[in-house]
Amino acid sequence: MTGSPAGSANLGNPPETAYLAGAGISIPPPPALPGATAFIEALVGEITGDPEQRRAILDHTLDGGSNTRFRGDFLRFEAVVSCIKFAVDPDMELLRIYSGCGAPNHYHHHLAQQLGRGAVVLTTNFDNLIEIACRTVGVDYSLVVTENELAAFCEDPAQFKNPLIKLHGGHDLTYAEGRQSPGAINVRATLEQVGSIYLGRGANHLADAISSVTGDRHLVVMGYSGCDDFDVMPCIMAADLPRGLTWIDHDDQHPETVKDAPPDRSNLPPYQLLLAHRRKRRDVSVVRGTTSAALDIDTDTDIGGESFDWTKVFAEWSQRHLRSAAHRKLLLGQILSLVECFDESIAILESIPPSELSEEQQDVLNVALCSLYGHLSDSSRAIRSLSVLAGNDREVDGVSLKGLAYYNLARVNTNLDQFNEASAYLGAALKIFKRAGDAGRISDCLHEHGRILTGAGQGERAARSIEESIRLCEKLGDLHGAGVGYGEMARALAAEGRLDEAETYADKAINLFALEGSGEGLGIAHHTRGYILAQRCDWAGAAAEFTTAIAYERSAQAMLDLAHSLHSLGDMCIGLKEFDRAERSLEEAIEIKHGLGDKDGVARSELLLRMLKQLQALGTE
Amino acid sequence: MFIKTLRGLGGLGANELEACCFFYVGFIMFAVGDDEEALKMLHAALLKTQDPWLALAAYNRMTLHHLTKNECPEVEKLADASEKALARVPESDTKTYYWAAVDYNRAEARYRRSEYSEVLSCARAAQGRFQSLGMEAEAAKSLGLLANAQLSLGNIEAGLADANEAIALLRGQGHESELPFILQGKAAALVQQGDRRGATECLQEAIAIYRQCDNITGINEALAAIAGIEATDDDW
To answer: Which residues of A touch B (CB under 8 A)?
Structure first.
């Protein structure tokens, strides 16, 4: 790495500059607001005292123990916010931790002043500190947040004086003229919301706004880690950036412009962007060092403002929304399911006495259990529990519990190759969801129908059904559904011998699951890729893919899938004449299948093992 | 019946006693879940014995095993063998019982192979024989099998009448665990007649009974049938 000094002189003048500010700028006091990891740590501390459960969750955070960034087991802030919204805080009052802070720091003041001098400011923050700083220094501003405002801004940016674009919205929006817009309606923080931007085929006003700003301005990125892979980061990656970009990778050192990505940081967003745009010969640079020094911001003078203690606001929120053990368990169970501790998640949720929850929260509990039972390796337990939930006629946020139970029963039966039962359940579920106009669940059913058709050897019909499901998922921003659909499409196409198309879909599935953070999904997608490579007679490539699948499936405790991947790896190793490895794989596959009561699967693996033994005997002779 | 059979073996020679031991061990092996060893023991008993009663008891137990495993051709073979053994024993209630059991097992095996027209005479014979012995529950169960075969053959009216009679008899005798099979057959017939609500009620009752004995396969089949009705139902 070679470096050169950097300073504000390199970063252009305000009328030609746009700033993108992230959570990092609100961490220095007086606001001292929490970043994503600090927030998740505090939340986990509130909902469980069990060290094992805490470790299971915190190891998956961005700064967690296993350095899992860009791998499938990364716990996303957006996913945690989705859980909170669904389980305990539908109005997302939690974000008042951010919007309740009224004491901006030097960075907010600097941005306010730059706005006043003609810059544009984009921010992913939920706090209102730049707005407050604007009022303090007497700078007028135009808030650009809603879809309508974003669209109007893209059409004619000039009509917005000193535009402050809040990319993820906010809970308590405060417009310059004093108008306030409180509530969750203007927040874009959940996985579903950012997913719809990532996958959306319609107008993407956020991308248009970023592109419109960067079209004639140099973009300076500060305090932003770039980890919102679904919306802002992809927009920046895709933007043309004709006026260039400077990303300040905040570090406690004198700033210097980095020419090459340091080996230990090459996976981080600024350097990925640097490498990607260098190939396109664009003016992108990364300045590594203190943000204040890089931007020539004087942080020594006292700007006043009482220090903000967000933990007090958090404690008040917790008093209201996590007031009993039942509420804490409801949230904990769901967050554990995000890190794929399905059995533990079910045990916690099942231990909640329903009488301690409101009627709405009982519904939330049942919906969560319904989805989790579909993941159980023990199909008898899954059927027993789901059959009880199928008798519940309530609807939760427009989702029929009965329909959801039928859908998951269909999944369990498909896994058991009981296609008649699966079809019956699916037909009923589809009818219920169609009646409710629940497009997300309709898409799930179409996808499951594709699985059944694939299982029944009707590849072409399967592909049509899955394609329809994918279209709906993309429209709705259902990341997981789209990932599953891509994977299933790959399998259906591979079964038809259309291997090139199949491989493209498998790659798309891997990409999406990696972004979403689904180890189970990644396992299945890598298995699919292995299956395609095996069809190409690339045994070594296939074995490598099955090995990757096994690693994910082991981590996600997806035992049925794990057993399938071990069997397939054994098969490939026989082709590669790695007999010892094949034997180990097949024996483990048999052991797992025995445990799951998968008699047919045991028979298949035992047959392969017998063949292997015969081959070994021939080899010895 | 088992004790009676064993008592009947008293005073026999060494071979018969050895056969008796094999037979007894076979029963125990079934009880502890080692079916393979149990079958070996019963085969050994059959090789040693000349006693038709012991043979009948062995055939009967082996038939139960093969029915559980859905091995219908084996059931038919054992029924043929049982008939030969029955020809060698004098008339008695015990003989009538074994005849009834053979009839019933044959009927059930044929039902499972979807040979419905072949079920009718066997099921009727079993019902009559069980009835003559005062074994009302078994007679009602045979009637249920007959009803389901009729329904599968499209004899809906007769089938439903038999099914309702069998259900009433089994309920009256407190043999609810035998009901789901008949209720599921009745539900299928009611669907054909357009009575989806009635069919669903039958299936719900079947599920409730399956739940009591934690029969997951039964719960799954019956619930899938309800889902199938709901998937096509436009009247509710």
So the answer is: 380, 383-384, 387, 390, 406, 409, 413, 418, 420-421, 424-425, 427-432
User: Are the C-beta atoms of residues A141 and A131 closer than 8 Å to each other?
Assistant: yes
Give the per-residue pLDDT at B191.
93
pLDDT given for residue B5 in this prediction: 58
* Nearest by Cα to A107 from A297, A302, A306: A297
CATH number for the region A523-621 comes to 1.25.40.10
Contact check, Cβ <8 Å, B232/A427: yes
For tokens 């719960």, the residue is B219
Distant-in-sequence, close-in-space partners of B78: CB < 8 Å, separation ≥ 6: B59, B62, B63, B66, B105
Q: Where are the domains of chain A?
A: 3-82+95-295, 523-621
How far apart CA A42 and CA A61 sit, in angstroms, is 12
Q: Which amino acid is at B224?
A: A
Of A406, A421, A430, the CB nearest to B221: A421
Q: Cα distance from B83 to chain A (closest Cα, Å)?
A: 35
B179-192 and B216-232 helices, crossing angle to 10°? 10
Contacts of A387 in chain B (CB under 8 A): 207, 219-220, 223
Q: pLDDT per residue over A282-320, tens digit each?
A: 788 999 999 999 999 988 888 877 889 999 999 999 999
Q: How many DSSP H helices and E strands does chain B contain? A: 12, 0
The answer to whether B223 contacts A390, with C-beta atoms less than 8 Å apart, is: yes
Mutation target vs B (from A381, A389, A406, A449; most B CBs, 10 A cutoff): A406
For the purposes of burial, counting CB atoms within 10 Å of the CB of B159, is it exposed (0-12), middle (13-18) or buried (19 or more)? buried
Look at residue B165 in the predicted model and tell me its pLDDT: 96
pLDDT tens for residues B160-215? 999 999 999 999 999 999 999 999 999 999 998 999 999 999 999 999 999 999 99
pLDDT in tens, A208-249: 888 899 999 999 999 998 877 677 887 887 788 899 999 999
| Inter-chain CB proximity A428 and B214 less than 8 Å | no
The average pLDDT across B18-32 equals: 89
SS (H, E, C) A190-232: CHHHHHHHHHCCCCCHHHHHHHHHHHHCEEEEECCCCCCCCCH
Question: Given pLDDT bands bounded at 50, 70 and 90, which one contains residue B236?
Answer: very low
Mean pLDDT of A69-96: 82
A427 vs B227: CB contact, 8 Å cut-off? yes
Q: How far apart are CA B55 and CA B49, in angstroms?
A: 7
A76 or A171: whose pLDDT is higher?
A: A171
Question: Would you state the torsion angle of the CA atoms of residues A315, A319, A323, A328, taken in this order, to the nearest 10 degrees?
Answer: -20
Contact B227 A406 (CB under 8 A): yes
Q: Give A-chain residues touching B226 at CB under 8 angstroms.
A: 428
pLDDT at A3 over 70: no
End-to-end CA distance of chain A: 58
Rounded Cα gap, residues A229 and A194, in angstroms: 9
One-letter identity of residue A63: D
| C-alpha–C-alpha distance, residues B222 and A428, integer Å | 14
Cα–Cα dist B123/B151, whole Å? 14
d(CA B162, CA A198): 62
Judging by DSSP bridges, how do beta strands A3-5 and A256-258 pair with one another?
antiparallel
pTM of the model: 0.76
Place of tokens 């798309």: A508
* Per-residue confidence band for B232, with pLDDT thresholds at 50, 70 and 90: confident
Is residue A130 within 8 Å of A123, Cβ to Cβ? yes
Average pLDDT over residues B27-43: 91
Please tell me the distance from the alpha carbon of residue A447 to that of residue A99, in angstroms, as a whole number: 40
Domain ranges of chain B: 1-89, 176-236
Question: What residues of B are in contact with residue A393 (Cβ under 8 Å)?
Answer: none
